[in-house]
Amino acid sequence: MEQKIFEHMQTVRGITEKSIQQIPEELADIIPKGFSNNIRWNFGHIAYIQEKLVFGVSGDKMALPEAYEVFFSAGTKPANWIGTPPSLAAISDELVAQKQRIENSLPGNLQKRLPEPFTNKSGITFHTLGETFLFSFYHEALHMESIKRIYRTIKH
Question: At CA 105, angle to CA 100 and CA 89, rounded to 5?
Fold first, then answer.
């Protein structure tokens, strides 16, 4: 079963990686009416939350640049950004590197108990690394749908 979980991660992240390659940089910062975030924020948020759910909540060192927390953590939004966020190419590189770190560190550790239970903003409590890892697929898909909706709105 563990192998299937990692294959699923490859599928989910593959969709994200393909999508970020297809978005022109000049469209990344447009926030259409009815949206509070842009495409860049959503891709960066995917990277940041994945890092937190796989490495941060288990007490491991998070390898993303510190700017990712400032620009892309939960509750942030482009309207409040101070400074220049990472380019789509930089975010893309981080997504690819992150996938490799996960593939190198998680096998055999999905049953590892978290140092303390982690409750997300939706009120869901996780006790193992596998639980947070599996939830990250759902989270990534939610934000990919947001990216698609923003892109469709911009293009029309």
Answer: 25
